[in-house]
Amino acid sequence: MTRRPHVLGIDDAPFERGKDAEVPIVGVMMEGATLVEGVAITRFPIDGEGATEFLAGWIQSLRWRPSLQAVVLGGITMAGLAVVDLEALSERLALPVLAVTRHDTADSELADALRAAGLKDRLAILERTPPAEPMGRGLYVAWAGADAFEARQLVQATLNKSRLPEPLRIAHLIGAALVRGQSRGRV
Description:
Blueprint: E1 6-12, E2 22-31, E3 35-45, H1 51-61, E4 70-73, E5 77-78, E6 82-83, H2 86-93, E7 97-101, H3 110-116, H4 123-128, E8 133-134, E9 140-144, H5 148-158, H6 166-180
Parallel strand pairs: 1-4, 4-7
Antiparallel strand pairs: 1-2, 2-3, 5-6, 7-9, 8-9
Pfam family, one: Endo_dU
């Protein structure tokens, strides 16, 4: 892996459950932690099915896909309760896929939320998800398609302004601006 890997950060935009049917999904491709090389936007149904297949197809269609060296997601869910299978996405893309969060996911209430929403079929994906490991204060990472050393290198190579990898942080800012007109809050 290079010191400045080409990493695609993907995050969903804010949405209002019951009001919005779809949510914007933003991808930001960066070289390392300082150079934005591409931005892509798509939409996905709130709590939609097939998130893994959707992301795999969308990422494969991006013109800069050949230069990607990893994908970083803002957790294993997007658009509400759409669950991404890290292992399957990594295999489809032949790339490391990392899910980054600010909190330890060991005590996550996601399984309860899936059951309450009648989405028990997604629990199998949740059970296959590797446990998130701490990689710094307020930074937990689960990954597929890489070993622990490579995952740590990818995260470290994309950190700059905050505790989150820059491609993910910028995707978050763009998503918020798309929906609210400007970004705000902690990033």
